[in-house]
Write a structure and sequence with these properties.
Length: 244
């Protein structure tokens, strides 16, 4: 069903397909999924919704189908909101792709039930901040991709990330002290921090706040994101046009 012109998934669309394990709906124009659209897919393990036009994921959208779901691909949509209980039933999920959307924040308990999650891709959004509750239960997390957002600090969390081995965080408006602490923590834990863009000239952090402040209101007041993005724009302009 991929690469078509579907715009909506109605209630009980997949009645009679209770044994289906993989569903590929990528490359359509889907902008709405009704609350019971996947309710009969109780054996589903892989759901691909990439390259569609979704803006919102509603409460309990996966219903009973979420219990066995292991791979959920939602990259390259237009997501701006994921309601608080949208992922509540995804207790077996191992891979979550939310990259290349328009998300600015996550509800605090959005990932609470994802104790088996191994790979989280939230890069290339507009996420301003993360909280400890986003990570507290993700004890199996091994890869975290959060580059190209608006993150200025990494939150305190009860999670010790015992299995985390790879992380990306470039192209974020880090507070400089926060970035140094984050890099030192990753180094001490033997976590591979991907540096694909660092060259000694590209902006990596902003030093307008003393110390490392976990206060998004102060970050906004000090215009940390604006300062970083203006510096990055100037760097890219100089690099690719010679400053013209």
């Amino acid at each position: 069903m991929s690469q078509n012109t579907l715009t909506e998934i109605d209630d009980f669309t997949f009645v009679g397909l209770s044994a289906l394990k993989e569903l590929n709906l990528s490359g359509n124009r889907i902008n709405e999924i009704r609350s019971d659209a996947f309710s009969t897919l109780i054996s589903l393990e892989t759901l691909d919704l990439t390259h569609n036009s979704l803006e919102t994921l509603k409460e309990d959208i996966f219903g009973k189908s979420g219990a066995n779901l292991k791979r959920l691909y939602l990259k390259n949509n237009q997501l701006v909101q994921i309601e608080g209980n949208a992922f509540r039933t995804l207790v077996s999920l191992e891979i979550l792709q939310l990259d290349f959307n328009r998300l600015q924040f996550f509800e605090e308990h959005l990932f609470k039930t994802m104790r088996r999650l191994r790979v989280m891709q939230i890069n290339n959004n507009g996420i301003e901040y993360l909280t400890g509750k986003h990570f507290d239960n993700l004890l199996d997390l091994s890869e975290l991709y959060m580059h190209s957002n608006r993150i200025s600090y990494f939150p305190n969390t009860t999670n010790t990330f015992p299995r985390l081995s790879k992380i990306t965080a470039e192209d974020n408006p880090w507070q400089c002290v926060c970035l140094n602490r984050f890099l030192n923590w990753a180094s001490m834990r033997g976590i591979y921090y991907v540096k694909e863009k660092y060259n000694g000239k590209r902006p990596v952090c902003v030093a307008v706040i003393p110390g490392c402040v976990h206060d998004i209101a102060l970050v906004r007041e000090k215009q940390v994101v604006k300062i970083y993005e203006e510096a990055l724009f100037q760097y890219l302009r100089t690099t690719y046009t010679g400053g013209e």
